[in-house]
Amino acid sequence: MYHFISGYTAKVAGTEVGVTEPEATFSACFGEAFLPKHPYLYAKMLAEKVEKYNSNVWLVNTGWSGGAYGIGSRMSLKITRNILDKIHDGSLEKAEYETIPGFNLHVPTSIEGIDSKILNPVNAWAHKSVFNLTSKKLAGQFVDNFEKFADETPEHILLNGGPDLKAFK
């Protein structure tokens, strides 16, 4: 629910006037401009459907891997399709996972046909210290963004769903 409410995405060149390189941004429920009510209401509706139909929810990185813009590269469509295929055939449900510190996101340690170093973002960056600084900055952006929704969002979502800034050194 936290990530759905946050709506982390990017403005990219060619889709936004004046944007020449990707820029992190947030759009609540991935459509903030079209939401007449508080995003928590839509997240709650999503959670009810997930529970009712016993569904899994996946976050798939379709953005950058291996470094920031200009250093890393965009996640390929071939890799993205492979990940989606593994979600659909159920094999990712059986995979082993590790946790990304600070974000508390669980990522598979391996997926057949995909270089495992791209699954956990830190492994794809040549300079781990730069990755850690970038991660800390991004975590701060998540926390700052979510402040505007905190008033009507239950505390357990705030505490359990988002980044833990204390985890970053």
Q: Could you explain the architecture of this structure?
A:
The chain has 169 residues and is α+β, with helices and mostly antiparallel strands. It is built from six helices and six strands; from the N terminus they run H-E-E-H-E-E-H-E-E-H-H-H. The strands form three sheets. A two-stranded antiparallel ribbon has the order 1-2. Strands 3-4 form a two-stranded antiparallel ribbon. Strands 5-6 form a two-stranded antiparallel ribbon. Strand 3 (64-65) and strand 4 form a beta hairpin. The mean pLDDT is 92.
Blueprint (SSEs and pairs):
Layout: H1 2-6, E1 8-11, E2 23-26, H2 39-52, E3 64-65, E4 73-74, H3 77-88, E5 97-100, E6 105-108, H4 121-124, H5 128-146, H6 155-161
